[in-house]
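Lecture notes, unit on binding sites. The following record was shown on slide 14. It pairs a sequence with fructose -6-phosphate.
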Amino acid sequence: INIIKVNSEQQFNETGAGIIASLLQSNPRAILGLATGGTPVGVYQKLVELYREGVVSFKQASSYNLDEYVGLPENHPESYRRFMNEKLFDHIDIPIENTHVPSGNSEKAAEEYTRLLEKAGQIDLQLLGVGHNGHIGFNEPNENLHGPTHIVELDELTRQANARYFSSIEEVPTHAVTMGIGTILQAKQILLMAKGADKAEIVAKALKGPITTQCPASLLQTHANVVVVLDQAAGGLL
Ligand code: F6R
């Protein structure tokens, strides 16, 4: 595991965006696995800048997002489809039909997304954030984890963390559809990003603690090509 500690928010975003941009420069048809949440927002902003400067193009790229809430309409302000359109896709040259976010409104969504991912082949680079409980995607700590895309019940901690985007915790969906651990670990390269002191403990557990389904991010220790980008605070316990 290659750990990069950066000194500022700007460096954090530039480093993440830089890794994605160099992949696209060497492989314009790259298949990107993308994440939502607070962590990648600045990375996406930086990618938009790089696109505007002509440094990078997404014209032939395609993307698969990790997860989506169950039960929110696609145009709900907090749906992950809308998040991705607003933060990234609307501002770059990726054909929108090349972008994929699982549907949170179809009973067959998990199966369909699994099939779609199988057809797409290997993801070249999977961007990940990490939850305070060690979740990646919405694979919550559990006795058993699932390989393919599936529906999960969100942990209370996850709903609390994400309540900041909703007007009350009651409005945070109870379930989500998420890419499974199997698919995530099949990516050629994984880029895990975390910032802030509140992530320090889980980052240390994930990268240095025992490999256990009770900390899904610890399974990244089994992957041969992981890059971790941390700010000083999130890397504080390493
Ligand atoms: C988002 C996702 C989640 C987040 C994690 C961290 O698509 O899959 O695993 O990456 O909850 O969220 P933030 O970045 O908001 O701290």
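Take-home: The mean pLDDT is 97.
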